[in-house]
Each structure stands twice: as structure tokens, then as C-alpha cells.
Amino acid sequence: MTDTRPVLEVRDLCVSYGAIEAVKGVSLSLGKGEIVTIIGANGAGKSTTLRTIMGLVSAKGGTVVYDGWTVTGRPTHEVVRRGMTLVPEGRAVFANLTVHENLVMGAFTREDRAIDADYERVFEIFPRLKERRTQNAGTLSGGEQQMLAIARALMSRPKVLLLDEPSLGLAPLLVHTIFESIEEVNRSGTAVLLVEQNANAALKHSHRAYVLETGDLILTGPSAEIAQDPRVKEAYLGE
Fold first, then answer.
1. Is residue 231 pLDDT above 60, yes or no?
2. Are 97 and 105 in contact, with CB atoms under 8 Å apart?
3. What pTM was computed for the model?
4. What structural domains does the chain harbor?
């Protein structure tokens, strides 16, 4: 059974860019064993929500609580050290470094002796990266770079992994591979909060879903139920 005890709680989050309200009182939660997705159109506030949770954007109001610890106002590097990390939209791998060197960068907050074992763990999840461990990240395909971005994040041993548009720009077969990998990450004990425009894939591979529309949450519930909602079918599933 999925562990739904909250490891992340967002309460009444408000974010503004000047006079524009990007996020309007959003509240959501992520259970310890869950994959939860946020879907919505471009400009809905999805990425802003993730970036604010990580402290990359300042909140105008509301609180973020991770594992009983108030994140709001904390620097991002401290959030990462505590066990929450973000894979940003666009992957942002270090193009001039090798695959292995990118993974080393992912473990920069750690000083324990289990780092070598974690290299092998991410190579088990992403065997293609093992084949390319000495290759510069900039020469990888888009799908391989996305795998590397996720693997690099996993090297910090997060309890919570935030993913921003992991399927963006990928061919359908690679989208399937990435989402299968996300499920494997979740099964290994990492809770996942996923922002994704590919609503079909996101709802298929998640436990619960939130639908965000111009900064407001308009729907929430089990992903299978959200996928059957007529409004979601029409707006996001092309039905």
C-alpha cells in the first residue's frame, strides 16, 4: 500500500511577479510513497510552484513544510542538504563535463561513504548512462540528458524529488522510458512531485493529481478519477 503520510505540505502559497499573480493560494501535499502530478496549460503556475517550493522564487504568502521543517525563506542549498531537490525544465546538465562528472556534482552536498554505491544504483535505473559514463553530457541525446538530470538529482539522496516537465521535447518511446524510470525511483523510496504538460503520461504514472489553471487549483483527486473528468478530457487529454 502506498504511504500517503505527508512528507511535503504546501499551504496557501501565493507568488507574484510584479502586479501579476502567478500562484493564488495553492495548497497541496505529497505523501512519502507517492507520485503526485500537477497538470495545466502553459502559464498556469506549475513551474513557479516548484521553484517556490525549492526557494528559487520568493513566496508572497503561504508556507512550505518538508518533513516537519518549514522551508519558506530558507536558501535552496539548505533545502537540498535536507533531502529535497529539483530537476528543472530544460535539464540543465553540465554540457562540458562527462556523465560521471555530472553525477559527482549531484553528490556535492554529501560526505558519506555510500556515494560509490549510489553511482551503481543510478546506473541500474539508467543503464544507458553507464555505457556513456565517460562521454560529455553535451553530446548525449535529449532523452539521455533527461536521464542524466534525474540521475544527478538522485545522487543527493533526496526524500522528495521535484520534476519539471521531464518529457518535454522527447519522442513518445523515450517519454515511456522516462516515466518508467520515475516509477522505479518512487519504488526505491523517493516521493515525487511532477509537473507535466503531457497529461496522459502524468495521470497514467501518478497516484494523485492537481489541476492548476491560471494560478488556481480547480481539481484534485486520484489520478484515475481526474483522467475521467470531462473538463480534463476536453482540455488536456484531447478527448
1. yes
2. yes
3. 0.93
4. 6-236 (3.40.50.300)
